[in-house]
Specification:
Layout (H helix, E strand, L loop, with lengths): L3 H4 L13 H14 L7 E5 L14 E4 L5 H11 L4 E7 H7 L1 H10 L4 E6 L2 E2 L5 E2 L23 H8 L3 E6 L3 H13 L4 E6 L11 H5 L10 E3 L15 H15 L6 E8 L5 H8 L1 H5 L13 H7 L1
Parallel strand pairs: 1-2, 1-3, 3-4, 4-8, 7-8, 9-10
Antiparallel strand pairs: 5-6, 7-10
Helix pairs in contact: 2-7, 4-5, 5-6, 6-9
């Protein structure tokens, strides 16, 4: 187990004061410290946007990639080195808008990696345009008119795309978020952690006070923990197709609740064969060692190169 100070860096952080990104970063740092995995065996990939800076603040391998492209690059790293703990991070615009195609493709493969999405409903780095998760009819202070398109439901999309661990948390509930991220990383398969968060600069609707329920009659938070209320998201028999369908359906139905109380916690969890395990069954070389460490010096690649010429 690492000390928390070993996971942090000295890179200056210029996120806006009060941004939910700080809570997500803190939860990530704590989760990585508790993983009991050497730092050189962890790689964090990011796209573009405020969340794109996250690898700079984590003292592990970090790769700052292109807008919406963190997932395919993270997938490539996992395929090249199966021993890496791979974490991708990005905003809701980065992951559910520009990178939506990669989001679906990654879910279908069930690679053993984790995707943490900073979900604040706006494109914070480019002055607050509505992101895919902002509901139709809503208008933040930076928008000239209300949104006229339907919002993406990332939880339902992930479950239907094939993600085998689908969860949600809230950025300012760091204890819950850290536990959720840890569970996602330890899950053998593709895991999504969608993180609700405030953007104090551009999203004046979903503020810290909004999520705390300050304007509600009972002053209760606008989110509640699914597991504390008895929701069972886990597929107990991996080979029971009927149970898988039932648990997926239940998770999707919970994701449609929203409204006054937003569910957080695990919506769906299924331990089944990963993409890497299936490849290793067909290619013994991959079962022996990571592809990045394979020795090809004794192999004649001439036929392959001739075919590509």
């Amino acid at each position: 187990m690492l000390k928390l100070e070993e996971v942090k860096t000295d890179v200056f952080n210029d996120w806006c004061p009060g941004c939910g990104d700080f809570g997500i970063l803190s939860a990530l740092q704590q989760a990585i410290a508790e993983l009991e995995v050497p730092r050189e065996k962890i790689a964090v990939f990011s796209g573009i946007g405020c969340s794109g800076k996250t690898p700079h603040f984590l003292n592990v391998y970090g790769i700052h990639t292109l807008h919406g492209r963190s997932l395919p690059i993270a997938a490539g790293a996992k395929l090249a080195n199966k021993d890496l703990t791979v974490i991708a991070v990005g905003g809701d615009g980065d992951g559910y808008g520009i990178g939506a195609g990669h989001f679906v493709a990654t879910g279908r493969r069930n690679l053993d990696l984790t995707y943490v999405v900073f979900n604040n409903g706006v494109y914070g780095l480019t002055k607050g345009q509505s992101a895919p998760t902002l509901a139709k009819g809503l208008r933040t202070k930076s928008m000239p008119a209300p949104a006229i398109v339907e919002a993406v439901n990332p939880i339902a999309l992930a479950i239907c795309a094939g993600f085998t661990f689908v969860a949600r948390s809230y950025s300012l509930s760091v204890k819950h978020l850290k536990a959720t991220i840890l569970a996602a990383i330890r899950h053998p398969g593709t895991a999504l952690v969608d993180v609700l968060q405030p953007c104090p600069t551009y999203n004046d609707l979903h503020t810290k006070e909004f999520w705390a329920g300050a304007d509600t009659p009972d002053k209760k938070p606008r989110w509640y923990d699914l597991q504390q209320e008895g929701f069972d998201a886990v597929v107990r028999d991996p080979e029971d197709g009927g149970e898988v369908v039932r648990k997926k359906t239940a998770g999707v139905m919970k994701s449609l609740e929203g409204g006054e109380r937003e569910p957080v916690g695990v919506f769906f969890e299924w331990k089944t064969a990963t993409y890497g395990e299936q490849l290793a069954a067909r290619m013994p070389l991959l079962a022996e060692k990571p592809l990045a460490e394979a020795d090809f010096s004794g192999r004649d690649l001439t036929p392959l190169l001739a075919e590509l010429a």
